[in-house]
Amino acid sequence: MSSLLIAVLTLSAMSAVFGVVLGYAAIRFRVQGDPIADKIDAILPQTQCGQCSFAGCRPYAEAIARGEADINRCPPGGVTTMLALADLLGVEPKPLSEEHAAEPVKTVVYIDEQTCIGCTLCLQACPVDAILGAAKQMHTVIESECTGCNLCIPPCPVDCIHITPVKVVPETWRWPLPDTLPGTAPKTAAP
Asked: Which segments within 24-183 are labelled E, that is strand?
């Protein structure tokens, strides 16, 4: 046999052996995820804003699944998300907690490009990669990607990142959600 054929057969045999070993390892050492946490995470809005006091939506979902956190701590998801979580978990709906109940104004950040020094600290802090720029170059925000989490503001050493409310135009306007949960009386002013 030619040396080329021997090399091809040897590599084919090695590939088959490695494939079998990797396939076995994938089955034997598979890490099981929590299916409830996966379903909870699918309901959450995925803004990764940290307003629930967790680092992102996945850690919050895992805490809910373990029973360490309540279902009413997600301001971006609001009542709609809380109701979906209550339905999924078979628990009673609860109003949003006091610290998370205020309806947040939809905001985005903008960078004062004259002041930006290009330190990239905001790039590292942005959970959704809405900031565009390079080291020692001016940065800018992609407004359509910005979730308004404001996590990029604290690490900025020159305070060039500012918050601005999203301008209400027909494309961004939405009907306001009701103030009450289904089956409860609406809020009325005291006589």
From this structure: 107-111, 131-132, 140-141, 161-165
